[in-house]
User: What shape does this take?
Amino acid sequence: MSAEPKVNREKGAGKRLSLHNVLKKNEAIKKDISTAAGELGSVNDALHQEQAPVAVIQKALKQNEDAEVIVAKAANDLKRVNVKLTNEIATRIGIESELDEVKTDLASMRDDLLLSQQTEKAALHSALTDKLTGLPNRASFDQALAHGLVQAKRHGWSLAVLFIDVDKFKGINDAYGHDAGDQVLLAVASRLRAYIRDGDMVSRWGGDEFVCLLLEVKQEHDVLRLAKQLVEHVAQPFTLHKHTLHIRISIGIAIAPQDGDTAPELLKRADSAMYQAKADMQQVALFGQH
Assistant: This one.
């Protein structure tokens, strides 16, 4: 990766050296012309003398010839310098044009990269988010549960999985229509999310089922108390098409590691406990307790 910048630096140094040589040559030409001008001044002074000796006149003519040679050479040198300067200017204009093109290309590449990152982020968000409720979906929950189990084992934590079902949801769809059913699911999602701690997760599992992941669980009764609070919170009156509904949910709970230390075990046992909860007045059941 360092070779290309080094080559560019060497090219840039070469251009600067070339221009330096041209300017140095120009200074030398100026000195030659100044010398020639001085010689011509001496010649003029000598030729304007009345009755100047022949030797003086001959010397003056010789100086004049020498000065003319210097002037002629300076003229040729200046012509070459002008050509070089013209080439330098053309080269530099070309370089600046190339730099502008490179800058434009880099800006375009940066925009393409940002767009690609945004598209990738949007695609990832879409792949891990439930389209209706905006909650994490099943794939997202599976990732969080797998990570949570690793952390729980490493740090000696307990964690809980809550499997949640909306009771008699089919009756709501049949009575009020699927749009109304979606509104009920949105209300349930919002109420569950409002009660879950930062760092924990509530997810839509599919249909009318939701799951919660609670990390760093200390006591079973803390999980039971939270589940009962969720039941009460979701059951608060909900107005739908001028009808007031009281949404019922049933919650089954499995706790790791005592109820299982793998995701499939915990989900299966939380789901089993959820069916027990449907027959319980409190609508909450802990796996293994009757």
